Amino acid sequence: MVEAAETVRDVAHLGRVELLTPEPAKSLWYFRDVLGMELVHEEGASAYLRGYGDYAAATLKLSAARQAGPGRISWRAVSPQALERRARAIERAGLGQGWSEGEFGRGRAYRFRDPDGHLMDIYYDEQRYRAPDHLRSTLKNLPMKYTGRGAAVRRIDHLALLAKEVAPNRRFLQQELGFGLREQVLFERGTVEIGSWLSSNLLHHQVAYVKDVHAASGRLHHFSLWVDNREDVLRAADILTENGVFIEAGPSKHNNSQGFYLYSYEPGGNRVEVYSGSYLVLAPDWEPVTWNEEERGTGVYWGGALPESFLKYGTPDVAASNVPAQSVSVFDPY
Ligand code: FE
What we know:
- This protein has helices at 24-34, 80-92, 166-177, 230-242, 293-296, 308-312; strands at residues 11-21, 38-43, 46-50, 60-64, 69-77, 96-100, 109-113, 119-123, 155-163, 180-187, 192-199, 207-211, 219-226, 247-254, 259-265, 271-277, 289-291, 300-302.
- By secondary structure, the protein is α+β, with helices and mostly antiparallel strands.
- The chain has a single domain (11-321), classed as 2,3-Dihydroxybiphenyl 1,2-Dioxygenase, domain 1, CATH 3.10.180.
- The strands form 2 sheets. The chain has a 10-stranded mixed beta sheet with strand order 17-10-11-12-9-13-16-15-14-18. An 8-stranded mixed beta sheet has the order 2-3-4-1-5-8-7-6, covered by helices on one side.
- The radius of gyration is 19 Å and the shape is globular.
- The protein binds fe (iii) ion (FE).
- Fe (iii) ion binds next to strand 9, strand 13 and strand 16.
């Protein structure tokens, strides 16, 4: 009897997300003062931030750029050996770009692109956050004091990436990085892959790939930050509104992922979600849940319909160009 290949368990979690912004000062205000993240370091054109519950020194890197969009997306390996294994696998797949020296809070990393062109890397050495005295928590197991500033997001959670074609990216994460497929939206009798939700750990998803209606490549739909409960999502809606930040959608609940969502744009233009609810996936033999057009509906479990912008806008924004939106059915990427 031939045994199935052992599942790869080499990627621990989403470690750091870089967002590009043409409005760095305003974006910093949004993440630090409105969402309540902590600014820990500034270097060159970048600012490094963290949520109060993140164990790492920094989990969000904001970099000044000509236009908004995703920068480098970083995955932490479970061990130095796992890092070497994944680097070799990615190299064999032809998507490797070689090793880079560390940056603030992190050791060396192996750089690559996913098939759609999103920049990524994988690393192991991570500097744990050491809170300065005024930010030290009285809870020994909390990396930093809960300041209660703004929406007070706890940690980074996931990304939704737009891709010209979902399947090659989904397969790449499954095969080369050991991600598990959690849910899928398949239209036209299962022949058109509209979206796939994947994770390497117990979180429902750390990344979603969603078909880009503009047929562009390398774009971001949204970056998501976690709060501990749905009341905190409602509170975040009040805080965003008090600060003049436009809310695009929510608070409401998705059917897929069971996520309780709130979407706004940071001043640079990237869509950001404040998120709670959802569910953990404990089963090692999880069977992906598949939704067709009818079951999927508009992707909203209850609450108002998602606006047109939610279906079409991503960063970098390609609406100004003459790329026509594809006539794919209405879908809801999150
Ligand atoms: Fe999301």
